[in-house]
Structure formats: C-alpha cells, structure tokens
Amino acid sequence: MLWNENGEAMINYSDGTSREWIVTNGIGGYASSTSIGANTRAYHGLLIASLSPPVERWLLLSSLDETVNGIELANHQYPGVVHPQGFRYLESFTAEPVPTYLYRVNDVEVAKRIFMVQGENTSVIRYHISGDAHIRIMPLVTSRCFHAVSGRPEIRQEAMERGALLRSRCDLHIVSDRARYVRKEMWYHNFEYEAERLRGLGWREDLLCPGWFEADVKNELDLTITASTGLVEANGSMLEGEMKRRRMITSMLPEEIRSLAIAADSFLVRRGSGMSIIAGYHWFDDWGRDAMISLPGLLLSTGRFDDARAVLRTFSEHVRDGLVPNDLGASSYNTVDASLLFIRAVCEYFRFTSDLDLIRALWPTLMSIIECYTGRTPVGYMDSDCLIASSEGATWMDARVDGRCVTPRAGKCVEVNALWYEALRLLEAISEALNLEWRWHGLSERVRHSFKRFWNPAGYLYDTIDPYDGSIRPNQVIAVAFSHGLLSLDRTRAVLRCATEELLTPYGLRTLSPRDPAYIGRYEGSPRERDRAYHQGTVWPWLIGPYITAYLRANRCSKRSRMHALSLLRPLLEERRYGIGTIAEVYDGDPPHRPGGCISQAWSVAEVIRAFLEARNGIERRC
C-alpha cells in the first residue's frame, strides 16, 4: 500500500498524481513532479532552468527512471497505458524538508531525495540504496521552452568523466559521483501529460535517453546525480546548506505557517542586481500587481525586510509615466491598480520598518504616480469628482476571450478608488511627518466624499459606478480591507454580511454571486472556457486575506472574532490537495471546490500568511 505524507492511503495512480511538489532555485528555475514521480504536465521535470533570470525557462531534464534488479520504478503515461507502474513499489513520499521517495523492491530499499542549489540552474538527486542490488538510472531529456511540448530538439552528446554533456539551446551537464555512465542514445515516443490534455493544450512529446548510470551495491551505497547548466561538483554540504537556509526562514514563525513560509520563499527571485516576486508556479512571470499584493504577506509579515526593500527598488526602477508594469518581463503597462498597490506596499514597508532612507529615495517615484493619476494615464484618469475612471480590462479581473474582456469593469471601480484614497491619505500623512513635498492637500478628503456614491441602498457597494454595476463581487471587500475611513462601521458590517452570504467559501471568496445569471461554478476545460469562468464565480484564495482584515475591523478585533478568523483559515492551512505545502491559484465556485490553475500562487500564500498573523496577533494600530 502506498501512503502519502499525511498517513493517508493512496490506492491508485490517480491519487498519486493529484498531489504535486515544487522546489525552486531563487532565480526562476525549478524542479517539480507528482507524489509518485509521474509527470502529468508539460511543466514537470527535474531541471527547468531559467536562462535569463527569472524568465526564459527551459526544460532540460524530464525525469530519472530507476531500475533495481530488473524492476522498473518509473511511471509514464503512454497512449492507453501507464508503463511502468513503479508507484506499486513506493512505500512513502514526503515533500518536506525536500521531496523524498522511498521505494522497496523485495529486500532492497531505495531513498531518492531532490533539491536545487540556490542561485544556480542545478538540480541534485541523492540516492541511498540499502541491500544487494544492481541499480540503473536512465535520464530522459529534452530542450524546449517549458510552456509547450515540441518535436525532437537537436541534442548533441559529448563524453565527460562520470557523465555526459548534452548541447542544445543551452548546455546540460549530467554527472554522478559514484555511478558509471554508459552511453546509448534512444528516443522514446508519445509521453502523455494528462493535465495538459484536460486544459486543452499540447500534451504529447518524445524524450531522449542519452544513456544511463549504473552501479552494483553491496549492503548499501550513497550516490548523487547532478543536472546543471554548468559543471558542478556535488557534495554533502549542498543539502546541509539548503536545510540550514530553510530553518532560518521558518525558525521565528508559528508552526501552522512554516510550510507556507517555505512556499513564500520560492516566489522571491533575483532579477539583475535586484529582487522580484514570481506570481505563481508553474507558468507565471513576475507581475507588478501580484507582487505588490503579495509583498506584505510574503516578506513583511515574515520579517524579510531587506528582501522587501530590494523588491520595491526593483519595481520603482521600472515605473514609466507613473505606471508600474503589469508584467515586468514583457514591460507591459496596462494595469490601473498596480501603481496604487505599489504605494500601499511602500507604506506598509514603512509601517513595519520606519525606514526613512527608502521613503526619501522613492519619494520622487511616488510623486510621479500621483501626478500621473491626477492627470491622465493610458489606463485611466481622475474625473471631475476626483475619482479614478479606468478603461476596460485594466483591473485584476482582466481575462479576455476572443480579444474581448469577460469582466470589462470600465468606469470607476470600487477597489481602485479605495486604493486611490488610501494612497493619497497615507502619502499626505508621511509628507507631513517627514517634511516632504506634497501638492495635493485636501484631495483625499474630496475622494472620500465622492466615494459615497459607491454605496448601494441594497446594503453593499457597487462594483463600478459611471456606469453603475450592482454585481455582487469581492472587490467591495478589497476596498474595505485596503483602506481606512471610507465607510462607517455599520456599512462595513453590511458589506461583510453580503460577502459572507454570497461569496464566502472554505477556500476564499467567489468572484461573483451564485445568484447572478452570469455565474459559472466550475473552472475547467479549454483556455476559452477557463477564461470565461476565471472571474465569473471562480474562488480565489487570496481574497480570504482582505475578507479576514475587513472582518476583524468590523468586529473591533475582539478575541472572539480573531478565533473565528483563524477557523476560517483552517481549510487553506490544512489543504493537502494539488500543490503540497502551498496554496493553489483558484478553486471551483461550486462544491466540492476543486483546486485549479497554478499549483502554487504567490498572493494566495501571502494573504493567508498575513491574515493568519493578523488574526493571531491582532491588527496593529488598526482596530
């Protein structure tokens, strides 16, 4: 019987492939697979290198297939069959502290541990074999963009001591410290990736076996295989160093969120001489909106202030005409809220650190954002009532189908104008405290007065005004949580009642009330079908963070409300489906709320961490 890390029986192949792990290298690269080692995505593999950190990710090593005394331990899906079925010999799997598989073949035990070297495109796979055995380890390789399967890439092999150098788009060095290498090239055909088939994407490819490593074992043997874009000598201190680094990340945090703290670390990446935040794994790059929503939970709540400062500096250097880029790698400036979220993140950083130097250094950039928004940006402008009117598709609900926005939200959006008010309020207060330039005295008060128009007599906030849209969406909760003083306590409580009755699920908030005719309860199918559902009812875990903040504020941070808030977070803290030790991008709006999208999403992890610590400790200086 196969058991997972929670002591639950995994009775078949489907159970084993429903849970995925990922480890990262701090520059955008990663290794990832399932709890039985079967690759079900085009994004799975043991070495996905970032050739231009943190982007241009390239899949090089798909898997290492072991054979022990003639018994194959791999798992591959081919047309109509899963072969071999090595999961039948898998006794246990755990993702912490590093992904570890334990196999038993008769009297032979094989432990396989996988980790990456921080700052390098290097994956290390360490084996411990106990018993008398002949072990053969067969690498399956390719050379392609990680986004899509392809034909047979041209891969040239050169001999190396204890391994091979494979040349293609980039070099792959694959070597072992204790096993001998036998060169024998062979292509294997029609590997199938079921997750991609279900997503309506390319799902078949061929992989090259360049040869294999083998060793004869008497009693026991430790051996290591290293796959890297450079030549690396593996040693025992590599794993010890990684374990020490992880302990430092989690040592000061409560037990309940230590796994999430490791997940949080995976999103922090180097970009040039600075730092950035990957929006989600497997396929997202570093996005401005996502990074700014994520930064407080990923870095400030966890005490990583130097990293937070570095991320803020990176994004400040890319501000153009008052706009923070939506996609940093693509330099796209098409979001109305990223710049306002950047101001919020800077102010949160200042609240945590009192770092005057960074505030003064960023002040010209902050002023350029306000200057731009009081005039006209490519995505919005300040109207005569001092509210921001934005173009369609400029908010976080930006999915498009056939070039058209599914949720256009053109006009004056509730959360955008709450962020606008909060940016003005906070920066004016900082300018007075530090004697810095400020030319917009009284503007925040005029925004606050105009914001009253968002109140719907039905007892909640309009999603947009000019034109009015009374759809019940979670953006009203974001507006309450990310601003102060816009609503009375009674109206704050009314918004919470509406969100609780219409939107709240165990895994976050729905993006649209199920009573709305446009509601779609399942996030599944082709890209077009998924994009239609993305913001039309699909649950987003990150929204539980604003909900908890608003709930605590509405209940004056009472002990009872804090205990209830912690209970609301428990399903996400105890989630064991999909991405192990992390939180998915989305869930179905309809029960049983299946997880979907990316297996590990930055703002999902960040907002659960932030909300947990707020509920546990109280909201400092806010209730």
Write a structural description.
By secondary structure, this protein is an alpha+beta fold. The protein has two domains: 2-244, Beta-galactosidase, Chain A, domain 5 (Distorted Sandwich); 252-617, Glycosyltransferase, CATH 1.50.10.10. Helix content is 31%, strand content 30%. Helix 5 packs parallel to helix 16 (602-617), helix 9 (414-434) runs antiparallel to helix 10 (443-451) and helix 14 (544-554) packs parallel to helix 16. The longest helix is centred in the last third of the chain and has 21 residues, at 414-434.
Properties at a glance:
single chain, 623 residues, alpha+beta, Beta-galactosidase, Chain A, domain 5, Glycosyltransferase, 2 domains, nine-stranded mixed β-sheet, eight-stranded antiparallel β-sheet, 16 helices, 39 strands, elongated, disordered N terminus
